[in-house]
Amino acid sequence: METYYKPGDLLKFEEIGKEAPEMAKKFFDYYATVFAEGDLTEREKSLIALAVAHAIQCPYCIDAYTQACLEKGSNPAEMTEAIHVATAIRGGASLVHGVQMRNVSENLSM
Amino acid sequence: MAQVSRLSRAKSTPSDRLDTGSFSRAAPFSLALTRHNLKLERDKTTTLQVNTGLLCNQACRHCHLSAGPNRMEIMRPDTIDAVVDYAAAVRFDTIDITGGAPELNPHITDLIERMAPLSSTLMFRSNLSALNDGNHDTLMTLLTGHRAVIVASFPAINAAQTDSQRGNGIFDVSIDALQKLNALGYGREGSGLELNLVSNPTGAFLPSSQEQTEKRFRQVLKDKWDIDFSNLFSFANVPLGRFRQWLRQSNNLDMYLEKLAGHFNPCSVAGVMCRSLVSVSWDGYLFDCDFNLAAGIYMGGRKIHVSKMEGPPREGTPIATADHCYTCTAGSGFT
């Protein structure tokens, strides 16, 4: 395999339903419902998705939700801020575990 | 994960999806119509669109006409006479004045004064910066006096995206122009003066939902600048002229064309503007729409001068199409 990620694979996502069509249908229906306009707008939901895409570092999702954010009317400044939110939470999640390190260290140290 | 939303779109129009591995493999627009047993024919023509010339103070990167400061094509007085005679003979419901920047045609006030009495709605398309260049206060007063509907280009509610599409400083000038129009009563509730905004995407992507965009623009413009407007229309960019050049240079052309073809919505065909509009170019020739004008495709495929027309275009006449027509049939369409 020359590369794990190919942009064209994103277009084949529906093929995942070939082996388990019922579960795929349920997932895609759920997914469509999640992203429909609710108390949050489609634009806001796309920004959240973009931030999560960066947190989980999914190249398919980053590609898709960059386009979705632009198509829903967000601008690059807003999109960058959304990514910083993900980064802050992700970085903060690491850093706050420093308290655990300190607890262990303090227990072991004189 | 975008495929999920693509799937949900495909679900609503299951037979619309085209093989878009590359645009050359996608169906020509005429074949897309045939597949759905559709014909694109003229309905009753209710709008006369007048393109006053390609001269513009801006050189927007999405302009399908490649209008700009170096374009010398301008509607001359003899052509204006012929257009006015035609409008007087046919009596269209709407007269839609566009350009380039129509403000820069030296005969624009004459055209407006003669056209205004000939239809119930006079529409004037403005890029806002030409109207707000300090030389067109009289024109603004004239438009107000005739209660012309102003249709203003306003792609985004932030300077970075607006200026990247339309030129440096255009966002600030546009905000200032909208405030001046509001001061005249345009866009303010109860004034009867209609101010409509047109938002085109600032890149190689499709427009956002018109309803959601209008809601957001209305809130942000009011909160930040106390600006009101009547309606907002969001339209896809047409892959012609300068926009097509940019698509090619940025390596987005095939992807964009595939995207338009992939969003073909057969339900939109009945309402496309070319069915009820005739567009006259700066030199007096007729086209089914402004995009065919940009592509040089004459009305019904025949070169006819406005002075030779004896009435409105005949109902049932086939409309000349090309692949850029996918722009007006993508998603909810371009009416």
Give the CA-based shape of chain B: globular
Average residue pLDDT of chain B: 91
CATH superfamily of chain B: Aldolase class I
* Helix content percent band of chain A: over 70%
CATH fold assignment of the domain at 41-110 in chain A: AhpD-like
How many strands, which pairing sense, and closed or not: the largest β-sheet of chain B?
8 strands, mixed
User: Mind telling me which CATH architecture of the domain at 41-110 in chain A this is?
Assistant: Up-down Bundle
CATH class group of chain B: Alpha Beta
* Record field, number of beta strands of chain B: 8
What percentage of the residues of chain A does DSSP assign to strands (E)? under 5%
Poorly predicted tracts of residues of chain A: none
Class from helix and strand fractions of chain A: mainly alpha
Ends of chain A: how far apart?
A: 54 Å
The Cα radius of gyration of chain A reads 19 Å
CATH class of the domain at 41-110 in chain A: Mainly Alpha
Main structural class of chain B: alpha/beta
What oligomeric state is this?
heterodimer
